[in-house]
Amino acid sequence: MPLGLLKYGLRPRRSPERFLPPRPELKRAYDTVIIGGGGHGLAAAYYLAVDHGITDVAVLDKGYLGGGNTGRNTAIVRANYLTEDGVRFYAESLDLWRGLSGELDFNLQYTERGHLTLAHADSAIRTMRWRAEVNKHLGVDSELIFPDEIAKLAPGLDLSIDVRHPVLAALYHPPGATARHDAVVWAYAARAAAHGVELHSDTEVTGIQVESGRVTGVETSRGTISCNRVLQAVAGQSSLVAGMAGFRLPIHTVPLQACVSLPLKPWLDPIVVSGSLHVYIWQSARGEVVIGGATDPYGLYANRSSLEFAEGTLLPVLELFPFLANVKMLRQWAGMCDMTPDFSPVMGVTPVENLYIDAGWGTWGFKATPVCGKRMAELIATGRTPDLLQPFRLSRFAEFEQVGEKGAASVGH
Amino acid sequence: MKIMPCPLNGPRNIQEFTCGGEVVAPPDPDRADAAAWADYLFLHHNAAGIVREWWYHVPTSFWFIADRNTVTDEIVRTFLPRELFGADARPDHP
Predict the structure, then answer these.
(1) Taking the domains of chain B in order of start, what are their residue ranges?
(2) Shortest CA distance to A286 belongs to which of A157, A150, A111?
(3) Mutate to test the interface with A, among B42, B57, B73 (most CBs of A within 10 A)
(4) Do A306 and B2 touch (CB under 8 A)?
(5) CATH code for position A138
(6) What is the pTM of this model?
(7) What number is the ipTM of this complex?
(8) Can you tell me the distance from the alpha carbon of A217 to that of A225, in angstroms, rounded to the nearest whole number?
(9) Quick one: angle between helices A84-104 and A181-194, nearest 10?
(10) CATH topology of domain B1-24+45-94
C-alpha cells in the first residue's frame, strides 16, 4: 500500500475534495459555446482545450451533466460495422477508448469482454461473414464462429436446434467492450474544467442568434451570450435546437428503452446480441443483467417506459437464456434517439456559418464519444472537415450520398 | 396497452398500426428538382408537441390521419384523409 494512502486512511478528518468546480457566473461572451453537456459535448470541450488550446469555451446543459443519453445508453463499445466509412470511424474510437482511462487519469472501467452477434439463419451467417471480412480488411478483429466455440464463450445460452430461432453461428468481435458511462462524463468534464472550460449545468438554450447566415450568439435561461462558434451536441433534442437556428434535419426522434435485472453471480463475459430476436444482453460489474432491444414503434419526446417493451424484449431473452426466467427486473428506462434514414450520424458544418452539428446518433452514440469529440474539436478549431467525418456530413442527403450502415444498431429497427 | 382510435375499426391496440410519417405535401413531380425531392424525402419537422401523421392499420390495409402529441404520448384525433384532401383523397394540398 502506498504510504500516502495509509496516511490518508489514518487521518482523523478527511476534507472532501471537490471533483468539478462550482458553476461560475455566465459571462457575456465566449469564443465557443457547446450546447449539450453530455459525453460528446464535454469530449469536444476537452479536445478543444488540450489539442487546440481553445479554452474560452462554455458548455451549456439544460439539466445536469450527463443526464441525457450518455447516462441512458447501455454502455457498449464496438467497431464491427459493415461500411468502410463506419468501420474506420469506430476503429479510431476503439483506439482512443483503450488509452482513455490513462489519458484522463480516471478509471472508466473499460472492459474488453468480447461481442457476439448471433446468426439464426443462413442469410444472417452470410451477413456476419461479410461483416467479418470487411472488419479484417480494415484491421478490426472479427471472426465468424460456430456453436462449439459459442458454448465456451456464453455459458447458459440455449444452443439446441429444436427452438424457434436456433443459434447457427455468431460474429465474434473480441475488442467489444463496455465502459462506465457516467465516469466518461465526469472525467471529460473534470479534465476540461481543469484547462479552463466553463461548465454551466441548469442553463437551457432558448434561442440561437444568426446574422446574415452566421451564428453570433445564443439566448439562454440565464441571459444572452455572444460567441464566435457554436457546437450543438444534444442527442434527442437535435431537431429542436436546429430549429432555433432555422433549419431542419433528416432526423426522427424515437425512444429506446432498456432495463436491468437484480444482481446475479458473475456468469456472462461477452455481450450477446440477436438481431433476429431484437435483443441484446450483458452482465455488468455489479452483476446486473443489462438488456436492451429495438426502438419504440413510433416517435415521441418522452422518456416513459412501456409494458410493450418489457414483454417484447424479455420474452426473446428467455429464448436465449431460459435460466433467467425467475430473475426479477430491477429498473427500466428510456432515452430519446435521433434516428437518421441511413443509420449513420450527422457531423460537421450546417447551413449556418460557424454553427457545427453533432447529431443523428440514434442508438450508436456512446461508443463514438472520444472520436467524435476529438474530430469535432479539430473541425471547430481548424474550420476544415476531417476526412473521417466527411462521409457523415449533413449535406449528404441533398447529394443522395447516404452511408447505408446496416451494421449500425445491434438490433434491427 | 396503448389504444389507437381507428376511424374504420374503432379502438384497437396501437401495436396493430404502423406510423407513416408526417403529413407533408409532395413536390410537383413535373417541376421539382433534386433538392426539392431530398427535402421532401429526408428532412423532417420532428416537432415536440401536436403533429399530424399518416397511420396505417396493418390487418385491414387502411390508411388514415392522426393528430398526436409527441410530448405527452396522447392521440388527439383521428380522421379520414378525405377531410383534408377531398373525395379523391389525393394528398396534393394538405
Answers:
(1) 1-24+45-94
(2) A111
(3) B42
(4) yes
(5) 3.30.9.10
(6) 0.93
(7) 0.90
(8) 5
(9) 70
(10) Folate-binding fold (3.30.2270)
Max alpha carbon distance in chain B (Å)?
Answer: 45
Q: Residues of A with CB below 8 A from B12's CB?
A: none
DSSP secondary structure string, A145-161? E-HHHHHHHSTT----S
pLDDT < 50 stretches in chain A: 410-413
Extract the C-alpha cell encoding A336. 430519446
Residue A1 lies in a domain: no
Answer yes or no: do A75 and A219 share one domain: yes
> For residue A274, is it within any domain?
yes
User: Which of B15, B17, B37, B44 to mutate: most A Cβ within 10 Å?
Assistant: B44
Cβ(A66)–Cβ(A182) under 8 Å? yes
Which of A293, A324, A339 represents a domain boundary (last residue)? A339
A188 with A229, same domain?
yes
* Domain that includes residue A204, residue range: 23-112+175-250+340-413
**Nearest in space to A178 (alpha carbons), one of A42, A271, A65:** A271
Each residue's pLDDT tens digit, A282-330: 999 999 999 999 899 999 999 999 998 999 999 999 999 999 999 999 9
Q: How far apart are the first and last CA of chain B?
A: 31
